[in-house]
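If you are new to this repository, start here. Below is one unmodified record pulled from the training split, so you can see the exact layout before writing a loader.
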Amino acid sequence: MFKKLFVAAIIAIASITSYAQTLKIGTVNLDEVMQAMPETSVLEKELADRTTKFQTQAKSMQDEFQTKYQAYVEQADSLDELTRGVREDELRSLQQRAEQYQQSAYQQITQYREQQLGMIQEKLFKAVKAVGDREKFLAVFPTNDATYFSASQTTDVTGLVKAELGIK
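And here is the target side for that same chain:
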């Protein structure tokens, strides 16, 4: 009985060891792949263009405020109380609109960036999954999350993921 149990244990250990040796774990440098994706450089250009457009408009609003403020300062002593109040209200309104515009522009750019990055990341993750499935990896971890794995026991699939995305 003890012999049969011992033989069964040896066979179980051997099969587990054999199975464990066939398990493949991959790593991928997501930052490297993301930077190589053409969508990322297109997004960076779009963000730069949008930022420049918003900055130009904000500067125009600020210039208008400065011009009207300078005119107010030059004429303040000669204005009656009612006109002075109207001009001060106008200046406050211009300043508030400029501030609101800047806040809205920042929110719009941030929201657009997050939305576009999400789509790019989704494409990247689909490519990682496709490579993992095709190459029969148990798991594929980002290189920064794979610090607990021995480099000799993992396979870097960064190149395969780039190829899956059509990146050289």
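Two things worth knowing about this chain: The longest strand covers residues 25-28. The beta strands are 25-28, 139-142, 154-156.
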